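Each field is set out as follows.
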Amino acid sequence: MSDHPSTYTPATGIEKWLDARLPIVRLAYDSFIDYPTPKNLNYWWTFGGILSLCLGVQIITGIILAMHYTANADLAFDSVERIMRDVNYGWLIRYVHANGASMFFFAVYIHMFRGLYYGSYKAPREVLWLLGCIIYFLMIATAFMGYVLPWGQMSYYGAVVITNLIGAIPIVGPSILTWLQGGFAVDNPTLNRFFSLHYLLPFVIAGVVVLHVWALHVTGQNNPTGVEIKSKEDTLPFTPYATVKDGLAMIFFLIVFSIFVFYAPDAMGHADNYVKANPLQTPSHIVPEWYMLPFYAILRAVPDKLIGVLLMFAAIAVIFALPWLDTSKVKSMRYRPVMRWFFVLFVLTCIGLGWCGGQLPTDMVFSLTNDKHGNPIGLSVVLLSQILAFYYFAFFLLIMPWIGLKEDPLPVPASISEAVLASHNKKKG
């Protein structure tokens, strides 16, 4: 927190000299060693550290891959294959980078759902939440541009679909489309632009992460009770208590990460991306990566192209407004039994949208009978996408404001220590 007094004492002459001129050691000590953290943090709070690990892995492996990659429409696909076959441990670096993107999004979705459940977006942490949303948006942009770089069939046509969607935006859309494509179609200039931006944006993300951590240290961490720190008894030093917990979670996360890298490296990719891009042969089903499928389902849920694009961007934009949509004075859904059920439905809705995004629009979820023309009658993928998309927006724009005013929450503990002692006594009893 901003009012946390520094306890760092320089031990050597060099430390005293540096501390008087550039107190970077003091900053690190106060931020990551003696920083007071709520004593009731659970393992859901370890995903912040896991995300920092993912970002570091992506930047390091990305720099190495950039040394061997050729951003040319005629050579890009072959350069990726050369990385896999001829560069020492190139296969490992590429698989770590490719699967690292999925691991990154897996961790960030858990991190966001945790923040949503425990009310980490509420005052005084609105700016902290907004910075996190900016990081998420930059991640989506970076991942999309990185998906294009292998220049396989799915990469190429994914770029065609998404850039054309951006072109549907009134007034500014055509100009942005021309700038992104570098011409009138997805080709070599497009690949060069995407490669440049894909290389740049992770460093922008790192800069926003620094602001995110800064905002976190100003306001202090939220906790499962949603009660602010009242006294020193509510806290523990960040090291060793939080660092050991974060370290253990990172080990388990890296084990799962390694399983994908070494045993199922292509499980989250698409087979068509191992075929070189061919503008004359369109794949039967164009889909983005799994972490973008919910937004893709919202896009396809509406027959009008422009409205679908606007809804897709609105699905991301509404997250930015979350601190001002929730009207409840209680932060944690641990004490909001009604809202908790709507939250569970929201999580299932997001999973359902992801599933719909990966299916063909003509597919049926289930069929009851056939009409006179032999067409199936039942719940189609498009209809299910429309239902789920409606609930997605209703959760933020209708349910959250209304329930916040009408719900009768459970009693909230007076302090973090009181909640910890109550939980301890309950377990003993």
Observations:
- The first strand starts at residue 36 and ends at 38.
